[in-house]
């Protein structure tokens, strides 16, 4: 899926009429356009504003060690001659002190045997184009201007030189709320963006950008105009250490949500790091771990073939066609009821009630979930206050949710090929190449002229303005669509010939159209960077987006038998 539109756009549009629909009680963050959104407030994070805390166990050990040293020092009494010797002491040759051995380096790798491969390792190297906000380093362009271009507020797709196809070789990428994760051809995991709750899986502590108070105001030194002041360790893609993964591990997929990241291995295991959030703040990574700053193995997950991420929940599909879910379940996005007194149970992966052995794909919106079966039919559950699940009945009601997976009967006439959810809308394409959308309307999320909507397929407010498209509807003017991706309130459609169209909320240039105005209908993205290129993938975060294209760059070699 296009991972996840997980952060609310920072610029709200003015003048939106009040909707009849109301936000779920769990919500605290405002969504663009002003009908209430349900997602937890996760966009207040700032790059570099938080540092990984000291591991509690390590801290206690150091404290204990310090106390031991104090005790030993206090119990050693000085030698005195107050006691007369009963007889002359016989001196013995001093025994040499044993030679101290160097401290062993702790091996953090999981002690597991690599299993039989069940997933294909991606090998197709891709060009990476970025655009959108960038002030938190989420574009991965570093912290400095390059050729006079700032690494923030990128209006149209820009080739990311830090992710060069020749030098780095990205083969798969996922966007979180304010960070991103990529997999390279040489089996490295790269991360960049906001690291406030360990989402990057590596230390990004930075003491830079501090003013020297000893220098006078009239100092001859000049500020570096090319330096934006963004934390370079967050804004520059860097590898997660291999020391946390079992030796011989090969990766096949990376995914990102708001404040966490996960990777899937060739033998069907899952590693993760970061944390999940709820409307109350940090929920936790597991029942016992609040924030996980480095990768750990999730031992209960085995034989997994695909992962999908929402804002704060994950779906995992296994070889038997069964689906597990974990994370925040406040909007029933896990497909099971979570009670407050036992809310941490949501952090344990558990099965979702779907037809056994029939599910072949999984996908997520920010707070809703989907599963596709072998027949191209779609099951959905989770938050439905804007009709984003597509199940008839309660769209527009207070705290409307679909409690358990339900077949979306409104899609029964379509063999769905690809589906992805945004904050409060959903996009899909069918085997005919048609683009289908439904959900929230007031930010042009569905890509359909509001004047063409009727009371038969939409819900209107008191001013007779359409607010929710409750019936999945084919979008006119676009065909041959083979895949889709959704951001919080913007979307992308890719066609068979490698063209990419975008629409929706664009206050941070996340549509790639060079405008901060809403893009009302699917519009071709066309600039010099991607013109003539075949775009094969797209991803969207909260306020930024990424395109992936086939590359013409030849990989660099080390000169030994053509090896990289």
Radius of gyration using CA atoms only = 27 Å
Q: What is the SS-derived class?
A: mainly beta
Just name the CATH architecture of the domain at 126-203 and 224-416 and 498-550. 7 Propeller
Order of strands in the sheet with most strands: 21-22-23-25-24
CATH structural class of the domain at 126-203 and 224-416 and 498-550: Mainly Beta
How would you state the average pLDDT, rounded?
Answer: 84
The quaternary structure here is single chain
User: How many distinct helices?
Assistant: 2
- Provide the CATH topology of the domain at 126-203 and 224-416 and 498-550: Methylamine Dehydrogenase, Chain H
Full CATH superfamily name of the domain at 126-203 and 224-416 and 498-550: Regulator of chromosome condensation 1/beta-lactamase-inhibitor protein II
Strand composition percent: 25-35%
| First-to-last CA distance | 30 Å
Total beta-strand segments: 31
What are the low-pLDDT stretches, counting only 5+ consecutive residues below 50?
1-95, 215-221, 559-564
Tell me, briefly, the overall form: globular
Share of helix among residues? under 10%
**Largest sheet, strands/sense/barrel:** 5 strands, antiparallel
Region (Disordered): 1-108, 203-239
Pfam families: WD40_RLD
InterPro entries: Ran_GTPase-activating, RCC1-like_dom, RCC1/BLIP-II, Reg_chr_condens
RCC repeats: 126-186, 268-320, 321-375, 376-432, 433-497, 498-551
């Amino acid at each position: 899926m296009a991972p996840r539109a997980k952060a609310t756009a920072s610029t709200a549009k003015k003048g939106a009429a009040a909707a009849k629909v109301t936000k779920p009680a769990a919500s605290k963050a405002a969504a663009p356009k002003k009908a209430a959104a349900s997602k937890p407030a996760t966009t207040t994070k700032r790059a570099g504003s938080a540092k990984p805390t000291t591991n509690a166990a390590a801290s206690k050990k150091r404290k204990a060690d310090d106390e031991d040293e104090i005790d030993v020092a206090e119990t050693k009494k000085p030698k005195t001659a107050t006691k007369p010797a009963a007889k002359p002491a016989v001196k013995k040759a001093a025994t040499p002190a044993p030679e101290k051995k160097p401290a062993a380096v702790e091996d953090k790798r999981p002690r597991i045997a690599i299993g039989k491969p069940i997933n294909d390792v991606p090998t197709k190297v891709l060009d990476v184009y970025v655009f959108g906000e960038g002030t938190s380093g989420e574009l991965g362009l570093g912290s400095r201007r390059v050729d006079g271009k700032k690494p923030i507020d990128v209006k149209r797709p820009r080739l990311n030189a830090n992710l060069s196809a020749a030098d780095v070789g990205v083969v798969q990428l996922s966007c979180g709320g304010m960070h991103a994760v990529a997999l390279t051809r040489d089996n490295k995991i790269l991360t960049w963006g906001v690291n406030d709750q360990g989402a990057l899986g590596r230390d990004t502590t930075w003491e830079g950008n501090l003013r020297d108070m000893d220098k006078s105001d009239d100092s001859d030194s000049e500020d570096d105009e090319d330096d934006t002041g963004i934390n370079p360790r967050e804004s520059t893609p860097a590898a997660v250490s291999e020391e946390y993964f079992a030796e011989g591990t090969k990766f096949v997929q990376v995914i990102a949500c708001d404040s966490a990241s996960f990777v899937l291995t060739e033998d069907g295991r899952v590693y993760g790091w970061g944390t999940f959030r709820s409307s109350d703040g940090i929920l936790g990574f597991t029942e016992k771990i609040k924030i996980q700053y480095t990768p750990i193995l999730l031992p209960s997950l085995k034989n997994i073939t695909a992962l999908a991420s929402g804002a704060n929940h994950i779906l995992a599909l296994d070889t038997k066609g069964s689906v597990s879910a974990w994370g925040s379940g406040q909007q029933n996005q896990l497909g099971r009821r979570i009670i407050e007194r036992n809310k941490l149970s949501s952090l344990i992966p558990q099965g979702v009630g779907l037809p056994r052995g029939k599910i072949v794909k999984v996908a997520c919106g920010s707070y809703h979930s989907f599963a596709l079966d072998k027949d191209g039919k779609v099951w959905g559950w989770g938050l439905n206050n804007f009709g984003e699940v597509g199940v008839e009945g309660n769209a527009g009601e207070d705290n409307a949710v679909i409690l358990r997976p339900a077949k979306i009967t409104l899609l029964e006439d379509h063999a769905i090929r690809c589906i992805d959810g945004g904050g409060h809308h959903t996009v899909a394409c069918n085997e005919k190449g048609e683009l289908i959308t439904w959900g929230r309307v007031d930010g042009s999320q569905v890509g359909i002229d509001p004047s063409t909507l009727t009371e038969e397929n939409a819900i209107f407010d008191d001013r007779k303005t359409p607010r929710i498209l409750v019936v999945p509807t084919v979008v006119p003017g676009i065909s041959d669509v083979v895949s889709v991706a959704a951001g919080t309130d913007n979307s992308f459609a890719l066609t068979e010939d490698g063209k990419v169209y975008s629409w929706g909320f664009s206050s941070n240039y996340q549509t790639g159209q060079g405008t901060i105005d809403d893009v009302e209908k699917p519009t071709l993205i066309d600039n010099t960077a991607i013109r003539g290129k075949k775009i094969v993938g797209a991803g969207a975060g909260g306020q930024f987006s990424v395109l992936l294209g086939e590359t013409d760059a030849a990989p660099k070699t080390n000169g030994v038998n053509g090896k990289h």
